[in-house]
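Researcher: We're teaching a course module on how sequence relates to structure. For the next exercise, students receive a sequence and then see the predicted structure as tokens, so they can try to spot secondary structure elements on their own. Here is the exercise chain.
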Amino acid sequence: MIVQTPPVISVVVPIYNEEECIDLLYESICRTLDPHGEPYEMIYVDDGSQDRTIDRLRELHRRDSRVRVVRFRKNYGQTAAMAAGFEHSRGDYIVSMDGDLQNDPADIPRLLAKMREGFDVVCGWRKNRQDKFWTRRVPSMAANWIIGRLTGVRIKDNGCSLKAYRAATIKSVSLYGDMHRFIPAMSTLAGARIAQIVVNHHARRLGTSKYGLSRVWKVFVDIITVKMITGFAGWPLRWFGLLSLPIVSLAAVLFISGGVLFVGRSTAGWIVTSTVGFLLLFLGAHLLSLGIIGELMVRTGDYSPGQAVGSTVELIEIQNERVERDNRYTDPS
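Model: And here is the predicted structure for the students to work with:
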């Protein structure tokens, strides 16, 4: 068994049904990082795999103590797996990558070298991406453009899992849902300095892809969430105020136009315009009240934008048990 000093570099690899790739990925990481002389660890997060993935990982751990294994009892998605891996990383620098051999571990030294120029997050850009054009590349290009326009973080490939982070930066980012695609934008809450470099991308040789067009809607909804968090997390009244402004303006237009066109001329016309105007005014006032409540929650509650919100494997395990128990009690069979 290989024993090492505390790691400087942590490589986090979410894994889901990739038993054929594990040994090859391990050998590739070792072949890349061993010559550099810095101590490192590999954290594999098994996201509820149903094949022999966990058996392969246990065998690697027995052979090499630098391999650490986190196992979820059921599939919770790539974001939860990354969050658990980040939480248990001990290195000063953390590198995340996919476990399907499409990311190239040979790019890790280049990511770290760029980070040591003074950056907190370095993103990989799969410039020559080896994926299906219509189902993978086109939706990705559209999402990257929208994310850049809305958040101001102009990353060409937000979906690339091969990224490097300073541990203090990534551990201060709250990850949930499918937010792993938006780590660069979310890290701006912690004042991160972000760079990107071109990385290799290989066509999938083993296993099957876990993604398809079904993720497009999820990404779209998450983009709205990220915009709200990065732009208005500390000022919810601004968010709801902006939403209410056109509604209140339209109500004012209806009142004025209704008064000019229908008062003294058409009772029915005035009733219709004034009723719609009052409904819109009520809706605008409702949105403003939500903003005021949000301001009170932010200013007086426990939440603070940019505050580190940790996720531990123990907590995830407890959540798994609770979900499984609730499902068992509510199952009509």
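Model: If you want an answer key for the exercise: Confidence is low (pLDDT under 50) at residues 303-333. The chain has two domains: 9-232, 236-300.
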